Every structure is written in structure tokens, then in C-alpha cells.
């Protein structure tokens, strides 16, 4: 190729910058997820407000990354590993933006929950939340370090999140049936749990992207075990 | 520019091909949404199975479009309108893929609903479904014709979908409170309605993309009226 060495070097730096920006965006999203669970569990309206505000930053970062990805593809015409790194950055930033959005949606429920529902409802959600934050953390580590094994482990772990969700779903349904006064708050919690489950799905997407980035091959889209039972397949 | 006329012509054709593929994908997605509502309303397991199968085709189309978008950006380095058309095709295909997924998730609930719940629950969902299908249809028309006005109308119409969703949400909650035996099926319907509302959000995204594609300007992300009341902000 007729390129000057310094051009190649600049391109390498450009790609490094891109992936470090994605990693930073990941850090922001991770904090939003951890905080939104705290906001709901502690019914902390101030924390919820700060999450809603900080999510805007995540949105801005996604747009910035998108612009740079387009410029890189247009001007550098990356091939093989470089193309994969560029596409992975784009897709992962999109998943992170969605994760930020879901955290924001969870935070918004704090407001509605501020009334007076039994603490019993929040325990399961808190456990599930910690699990999801852990997977997101591991997945982002795998992205930064390029550790495929970690990515596969995090990818597999999503089953556990789904199991948690399904058992929480049944538990919340039981509460509702036992006491109609709990229907409204249980429904809110159902949506919080559903959003956490969707955050888990986005972690899975990111783990798949890390695998594709490092190995050039896609992980099987359909896991061997059904992702969730039919009581709630959405 | 030092390009041969036939090169420019080939590029124009490439872009036309791209947008006609997106339009075709839109047609498939639209049919999935219309059918999934029928599957739930009529508890039609066969229709549900066909939807789940046809959604795979939508997924394949998204990947094909993505590959071609990357190739176009790399080889043609499109500018201005051409770049917008390329990016719009990419983003719209992504929204259509999500719409297909959500239709599939709705179809899957048919299985669980096959038992014996009162028809009363399905009426509201059917109405909401028709509304969403109509908006998707109008939005895709706007994409094909480049009619910005139609896109803006469809974009505004999402508020109506959200209002429908909110009133359905309250209605379903009332059923649950009145009769605990309806909690399980009402919860399923709640998720069906939620998925329809999310399909509406993706229509909004597409309408925004059409606006950007035609005018080069973005529609205001935050609508003047809150998108949904706090009883369900997810």
C-alpha cells in the first residue's frame, strides 16, 4: 500500500481513541445502571434526577462515536481487524446508549414508587440488578482487554439473568394475586425487572461483538437453552 | 470530481437499490406487526409460528443492508444527500429489525394466552395495534415518497399511541384489581401493549430519519408534551 508510515500510525491512534471512547461510554453506562437500582431501592428522587440528566451525556457520546466511525470508514477504508474494530465500536456504542436509556427508565419509576410499597418487592430486583451490573462490568472488561473467554462467560451468564427475571415475574404475580393493593407497585417492579432483563440482553450483544472483534467469528445467536420460559417471552 | 459518468450512474443505482431493499424490509415488518395482533386476538398458534419464522428473514435483510452500507461508505465515500441516504438506510433497517423482533415477541404470547381469558382484554390491544400498524404504514410511505409532511404527521401521531397505551395500562390494572384470576392474562396483555408502544417508538425513529434524510435537519428529540405519564415511563 502506498501509505506513509505516519499515516498508518495516525490511523492506529484513531482506532485506539475510538475504542477508549467506547470504554469510557461503557463506564458511564455502568454507573447509570448501578445507580438506577439504588434509586429504586432507596426511593431516592435526587439520584433518579441525576441519572436522567447523566443519560444525556451518554446520548451525546453515541453521536460523536457514530460521526467518527463514518469518517473512519470513508477516509481510511479499514479492512479485516480494523474494519471489525470500527464496526464493533459503532454497535457497542449503540447498545450502551440503549442501556443508558433503560437505566433512565428505571430511575423514572422511583418517582411513582415513592409512595409506600412493601420492601419485600425490592429485594429480588436489587439482587437481579447486582447480577446485571456484574455482567456489564465483565463484558466491558472483556472489550478493553480483548479477552474472548471473559466475553463468552459473560454471554453465557445472561441465562442466569433470565432465570432471575422469570422467578421474579412469578413472585410478583403471586404478590398481586394475594393482595390487590400490591398490584400497582408490583406492576412497576415488573417493568423495572423487565428493563433489567433487557439491559442483560444488551450486555449479551456487546459480548457477541467482543467475540466477533477478536475472533472474526460470530457467537451462535440462539443459546442452547431457551432464553426465557413462555410465561414471559418478550 | 474525476469520475466517469457511468460510475456516478452506477452509484445512483446502488443507492436506489439500497432504499428499495429497505422499503421491502419495511413491507415485511409491517405484515409481521399486523399479523401478530391477529395472532393474539384470535389466539392463532399457526399464525404465531409463521411470524416467528418470517422474522428470521427480516434479520437476514438487516445484515445484508448493513454489509452494503459499509461497502458504499468505504468505496463511494458518499457526501451530503448521498451520505444521509446511506446512513438513513442503515438506521431504518435497524429499527425495522427491532420492530420484527417485537412482533415476534407479541406472537409468542399467543401460546400463553391460548387458555381462556375474557375477550374484553383484547379489544383495547387490537385498537392500539391498528393504530400502530397505520403509523408504520404512513411512515414507510413517507420514506418511499420522501414526503416530509407525512413523516412529521406520523411522528406527531406517536403521542396518540402513548395515550392509548397509558389508558390501556390503567384499564388492565383495574381488571387485575377487580378479579385476581385475571392478573396473569392481564400481565401478558400489558406486555403486548408495551411491545406495541415500543413499535410505535421505532416508527417515530424512522419518521425522524426520513425528516433528516430529506431536509438534513433533525426533528426535536423531546416532544413538547411528555411522551407518557409517570404511571409508566419505561
UniProtKB/TrEMBL annotation, chains A, B:
Entries under Pfam families matching the protein: PhoU
Transmembrane segments: none
Compartments, record wording: Cytoplasm
Keywords: Cytoplasm, Phosphate transport, Transport
Domain PhoU: 22-110, 125-210
Summary of subunit composition and partner proteins: Homodimer.
Protein family according to the UniProt entry: Belongs to the PhoU family.
Known function: Plays a role in the regulation of phosphate uptake.
Name of the protein in its database record: Phosphate-specific transport system accessory protein PhoU
Species of origin: Hyphobacterium marinum
Lineage: Bacteria, Pseudomonadati, Pseudomonadota, Alphaproteobacteria, Maricaulales
Gene: phoU
Amino acid at each position: 500500500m502506498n501509505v506513509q508510515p505516519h499515516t498508518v500510525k495516525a490511523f492506529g491512534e484513531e482506532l485506539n481513541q475510538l475504542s477508549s471512547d467506547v470504554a469510557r461510554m461503557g463506564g458511564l453506562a455502568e454507573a447509570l445502571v448501578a445507580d438506577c437500582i439504588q434509586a429504586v431501592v432507596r426511593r431516592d428522587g435526587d439520584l433518579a434526577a441525576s441519572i436522567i440528566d447523566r443519560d444525556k451525556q451518554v446520548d451525546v457520546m453515541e453521536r460523536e462515536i457514530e460521526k467518527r466511525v463514518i469518517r473512519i470508514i470513508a477516509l481510511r477504508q479499514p479492512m479485516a481487524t480494523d474494519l471489525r474494530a470500527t464496526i464493533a465500536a459503532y454497535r457497542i456504542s449503540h447498545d450502551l446508549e440503549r442501556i443508558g436509556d433503560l437505566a433512565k427508565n428505571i430511575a423514572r419509576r422511583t418517582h411513582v414508587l415513592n409512595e409506600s410499597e412493601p420492601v419485600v418487592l425490592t429485594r429480588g430486583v436489587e439482587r437481579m440488578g447486582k447480577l446485571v451490573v456484574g455482567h456489564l462490568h465483565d463484558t466491558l472488561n472483556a472489550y478493553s482487554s480483548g479477552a474472548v473467554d471473559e466475553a463468552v462467560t459473560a454471554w453465557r451468564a445472561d441465562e442466569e439473568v433470565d432465570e432471575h427475571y422469570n422467578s421474579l415475574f412469578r413472585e410478583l404475580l403471586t404478590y398481586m394475586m394475594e393482595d390487590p393493593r400490591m398490584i400497582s407497585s408490583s406492576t412497576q417492579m415488573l417493568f423495572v425487572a423487565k428493563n433489567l432483563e433487557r439491559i442483560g440482553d444488551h450486555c449479551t450483544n456487546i459480548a457477541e461483538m467482543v467475540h466477533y472483534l477478536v475472533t472474526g467469528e460470530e457467537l451462535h445467536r440462539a443459546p442452547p437453552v431457551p432464553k426465557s420460559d413462555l410465561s414471559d417471552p418478550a
